[in-house]
Amino acid sequence: MNEIVLINISGEDKPGLTSSLTSILSSCGVNILDIGQAVIHDTLSLGMVVEVAANSAGVFRDVLFKAHQLGVNVRFSPISEERYEKWVLGQGKQRYIVTLLGRRITAELIARLTSSIAAHGLNIDKIARLSGRVSLHSTYAGVRDDASPFITLETRA
Q: Which pLDDT belongs to residue 149?
């Protein structure tokens, strides 16, 4: 019987980090069922749902040691087969994409938008910034002072 585990990795991003960790998983024949990664201001947040053979606790030890060497945090959370299958079935639900465009994206704007999304019974799956970063001073070469930042939110029922 195989086990399903959510692996969360967080810490300072550096080249080769994801490669190092997935190489360990690969050497143990791990199946990656889902993966998502974001880097915000050089801070990595990486999540993987993996399927491993029930007798392969050594793979988690190896990932833990490598994470320690790389200076990142790792957390393992078991997922029941029933919970995983329920999650898979939910992936077929209708999705909506909301784009927020403005001179400045404030916490108030995001709070109002996400409150409305929640009030309609929707769940946010992904938030992504699609525009360049906004300078605090607008004097750097190549930074347009008229660029409007925008983000997109992907939701599902």
A: 59
Residues of the chain where predicted confidence (pLDDT) is lower than 70:
130-135, 137-151, 157
Q: State which of 57, 89, 121 marks the end of a domain.
A: 89
Residue 68: phi and psi, rounded to 5, are: -60, -45
**CA distances in angstroms from 16 to 20, 40, 50, 96, listed in the order given:** 6, 17, 20, 34
| DSSP bridge pairs for 154 | 97, 126
106 lies in the same domain as 35: no
Number of other CB atoms surrounding residue 53 within 10 Å = 14
- How far apart (Å, rounded) are the C-alpha atoms in residues 131 and 148? 8
Give φ, ψ of 92 to 5 degrees.
Answer: -85, 0
59 and 29 Cβ atoms separated by less than 8 Å: no
Give the whole-angstrom CA distance, residue 129 versus residue 94.
Answer: 22
CA–CA separation, 64 and 25 (whole Å)? 12
Q: Residue 101's pLDDT is what?
A: 77
Host domain of residue 45: 2-89
Residue 56's nearest CA partner among 9, 8, 3 is 3
**Contact predicate 33/84, CB 8 Å:** yes
Cβ count near 153 (within 10 Å): 19
